[in-house]
Amino acid sequence: MHLISEMDRFGLRPVSNSKELPIDKKPDWDWQRAWTEGKNRPEDWTDDEQVLRDIPAYVLEYAPLVHLYSGEQFWPCDIAEHLYHITPALNYTPLESTKEPPTLQNLDKLNEWDDGHWVFLTSNDNVEERPDWLEGEKNIPTMPTDVDSGYDDDEGWVHKPGRTYIQGLKDAMADLKEWFAPDAEDVEERNDFHQSRYGQADEDKTSRRIHLELRRSSGEERAPPSFRGGRSDAPAVLITVNKGHGIVDAFWFFFYSFNLGNVVLNVRFGNHVGDWEHTAIRFHHGKPKAVFFSEHNFGSAYSYEAVEKIGKRPVIYSAYGTHAMYATPGTHPYVLPWGILHDQTDRGPLWDPALNSHAYTYDFKADVLRSSNITPRAPTEWFDFAGHWGDKFYPLKDRRQYRFAGQYHYVNGPMGPKFKNLGRKKVCPGPETAPCVIKNWLSSGDKIGRLHLSNENGEDDV
After folding, report:
1. 87 and 94 in contact (C-beta within 8 Å)?
2. What's the CA gap between 232 and 252, in Å, rounded?
3. Is the dihedral of CA 334, 157, 142, 281 positive or negative?
4. Which residues 6+ apart lie within 8 Å of 166 measured at CB?
5. C-beta of residue 122 within 8 angstroms of C-beta of residue 398
6. pLDDT bracket for residue 38 (50, 70, 90)
7. Is a pLDDT exceeding 60 seen at residue 167?
8. Which PANTHER family would you find in this protein's record (predicted)?
9. Distances (CA, A) of 370 to 229, 299, 342, 367, 382
């Protein structure tokens, strides 16, 4: 095992003292063109087809903004570029018939081997040498040229979850029954529905305590950046799903070529190549009702009114290394008691995924993904790939691998967006019977600060 401190940097590459980003060497292939080589031709769409491909304007109006961690090592990446650096493998054996790297247009062909479930998109490089494509440093969101121009109807940093318990009960999602779980049976009799009406889950207080060592590791709070979101060269993927009953779920997917696992007792667990994260915003008749934040194999759901926003847009915090998504900056313990295992978020670079995204609509009943009116030439074949977007966990004979207390240093790469339960009845993933409590205010463990902005008179506005 490799014993480390919590914030030790990963990999063998020496850390540069230069504050400037490395010069981006242009690849000898145009992987960005891959996103416009889809087979769909908008001029061939009928009126009915146009309706099926339409992204409602309100989806972009309420698109999320993502604070990446200021000390991140592995930034957002482009799946088209990721594919150029992998070799498909089955049981650690490269597939001989795939001489060229797969593309967004033919990735689904890998399902011909064992239905694709055991195919792994295996890195051609030693990931511990941190190749540029794995880090994605060139994709750090760039600040807009006009940082003084705000969003339409901008209200600065709006902290709406500051409600008392009585206030929360007074206006706690009166129409919850209409959008909580469409078509689910006996939904009003379920415990998570009742807890959502009161806006807060029953929580294990022990799991919310902050361990002394965890407090020490949190570091000093960094100065917040400008509130204008920046564009990343790594595109997000937007998938809207019409659930009927006036309900539309907007799934925003973010891809990273590497997931850096967390540290427990100075041992790092859970590294893997490829990392898909997502947030889902549920709309009812065009109004945002709930926001889901994916966190590892689970997540948290809040009412739209509860989450922090810039203008109308929900703010998401991406955790260091793991890229798990949270509603607040700070330290987030999970799974283990006393905060031994935790994620860290802060107000690092602010990413506006709406500035560079590829949008689709998905009919989950017919299992049909369509490119949208926004990006009509975006390919769809990659979506159907049923395998893993990274390496298979390394065997123990591999020098990079170790196991401690049943946990591995490297684990399997994840499966893609199609397998994130896009047809879910509740805004949370998982089976219909799984609990999904929608919090109507941020809990004591989800504190957020307020950003002071100066108005035109030089006075502080909160």
Report:
1. yes
2. 14
3. positive
4. none
5. no
6. confident
7. no
8. PTHR48172, VACUOLAR PROTEIN SORTING PROTEIN 62
9. 28, 27, 38, 10, 12
Query: Pairing state of beta strands 330-333 and 272-284?
Result: unpaired
**Structure confidence at residue 434 (pLDDT):** 87
Tokens 């049909």 found at:
368
| 3-state helix, strand and coil shares in percent for the chain, rounded to the nearest 5 | 20, 25, 55
Say how far residue 396 (Cα) sits from the centre of its chain: 30
Model confidence pTM above 0.70? yes
* pLDDT-based confidence at residue 85 (cuts at 50, 70, 90): very high
Neighbours of 377 (CB within 10 A): 14
Q: Which helix (H) or strand (E) element contains residue 300?
A: strand 298-303
Place of tokens 């009845």: 425
At which residue do the structure tokens 């009919």 appear? 363
Place of tokens 């947030």: 279
Q: Tens of pLDDT along 403-441?
A: 987 889 999 999 999 999 999 999 999 888 888 999 887
Four-CA torsion 139, 380, 287, 63, nearest 10 degrees: 10
Three-state secondary structure call for residue 256: strand
pLDDT in tens, 371-406: 999 999 999 999 999 999 999 999 999 999 999 878
Element (H, E) at 83: helix 79-84
Angle CA(383)–CA(389)–CA(392) in degrees, nearest 5?
A: 145
Can you tell me whether residue 217 is helix, strand or coil? helix
Q: Per DSSP, what are the bridge partners of residue 325? A: 318
Residues 246/370, Cβ–Cβ less than 8 Å: no
406 or 460, greater pLDDT: 406
- Split at pLDDT 50, 70, 90, the class of 298 is confident
Rounded Cα distance, 64 and 316, in Å: 7
- Tokens 């998938």, residue located: 239
Task: Give the pLDDT band of residue 454 (cuts 50, 70, 90).
Answer: very low
Q: Which of 31-35, 229-233, 245-249, 338-342 has the lowest mean pLDDT?
A: 338-342
Q: Are 248 and 240 in contact (CB under 8 A)?
A: yes
Secondary structure, 3-state, 369-429 = EEECCCCCCCCCHHHHCCCECCCCCCCCCCCCCCEECCEECECCCCECHHHCCCCCCCCCC
Query: Taking CA 439 as the corner, what is the angle to CA 318 and CA 184, rounded to the nearest 5 degrees?
Result: 105
Other CB atoms within a 10 A radius of the CB of residue 243 amount to 20
Task: Please give the average per-residue pLDDT across 229-238, as a whole number.
Answer: 95
